[in-house]
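Why does this matter for the project? Reviewers at the last site visit asked to see concrete outputs rather than summary tables. In response, this paragraph embeds two records directly. Each consists of the residue sequence and, immediately after it, the corresponding structure tokens. Nothing has been edited or filtered.
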Amino acid sequence: MRNLASAVCLSGLTFGAYLSTAYAHDHPHTELNETYGFSAAALVSVPETVDCVLETGQMSHCLQLVVKHKPSDLGIGPFCPESLETAGGIWSWDGESPGLYRVNGDFLRMIAAEGYQMFDAYGAVLRSDISEAPPTESNTCIQVSEDASVMMTALIPWEPVLAERPSRLGVVNKVGMALTGSPIFSDAPSVHHTGHMPALDPCGGHVDPGGWYHWHANSSDIATVFEAENVDATCALKQDGAQLFGYAFDGFAIYGHLEPDGSTPRGLDDCRGHIGEMPNGEIGYHYHTGENFPNLPRCLSGVQARENFSTTAQVGVGANPPPGTEITRHNPPGGGRNGRGPRGGPPDLRDAASQLGIPEQELSRILRESGRPPNLAIAAEQLSITESELRAVLPSRRRP
């Protein structure tokens, strides 16, 4: 990591340079404008430079973005289908036959066979808006209503600093800000947690319980994922595997699965980042998203700013409503007793995955593939830890 840090420093390529480079690449006949390449349709105010404190305690400067609950020119949905005869958005299933699926009758019947029935006897899909009230059914497809009054504030370091070790991305962790002006988050919660499915639309986003829209995928390169995973879905946004998608919360750029010149990235690290050539010929560290879902960086290599994401929303991630706000919205439902979701679903692995520093879906897959019941010795070997260390973090119901 020290060699990597040295290479980045020697390149002299700051977040500001990334912004200028990227904007010039996509707009060759236009000067960098006051939006710094972020969609004006999302901005509440002109981005500005502010003092910030990094997680290491170091004083720095950050670009401060204040954005709307969603860009005014962004169409979203569909999320949940109305019936088994129609199609909604997409979902990454981590039970039997794992993979990315279109949320339609075939998929809903498949997960019903595993104990998660989200439709009634007449084929109508059981939908819920968890921001309005807790679901009354054991299993529902979640479709949250928007709150147009919400604003979000994000801080991105101007001069990226590599951390001593990468920070792993688990479930609903902050990843960055897309050029669309929407936040980017890691994996959405598993159906196994609560029995409910917060469906994503065909571009890989959905609405937080607080009422604001965000991505769980690189929406500008999701067609690549659909092709790789044989999913019949189309995102209305322009698709380009070499396009700049946004910036991680550590300040490094996030591209699609190709280099800006269309070539395949080489020498990617565990986070899917590397030092490579940028559009203006400069050499700098940046991330690439993958060809399978979720097509986002697996971890963040740099240091983030403290308190780098907040919203005026009543509930949800980063919620910090103004004093005196009447709280009328609800947080997501929790899991069932003993760490198990409704209808006797699998144990809740959220805390275990967080302690191990890996995505929950990865931990679920490793346990599932180790045997039935899970062979913890095999799973621990896959995780490069001891069996006793694995036993110590797993829910009690998983321990033999």
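We now turn to the second protein, recorded in exactly the same manner.
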Amino acid sequence: MIQPRNILRQIVDVQVQADRLIKRKATLNEIEDFAKYSFELRTYLMENIENDFILKQINEIPILNLEKENKVPEGFLYSLLLFFGGWLSAYALEQKKKSEALEVIRDIRAKYASTEFMLKNYFR
């Protein structure tokens, strides 16, 4: 049995966590933990909500996959980074990965906000 109060609290929590990650310099480990939490919550909602309109909204919540977000760059800039040292290129890749992940997190936060609004009406 789904507990409306608990689900809404978790949806608010994931939005607060997203805000925290966006506003401060989050580590990749923190982003990875957020991705797991968001995925688990999304999965739970998909399995327990029966309203098709809300399910469509939940299905639009992005899944943050850090492996997919870490495409190997090509071109002159990447070659230059490799030339100047592995540590510099590793740092640049990590920053790129974090930046791309934070863009997805912004979208996740927005989708959960919409989902929260819909579920408040659904649980009435």
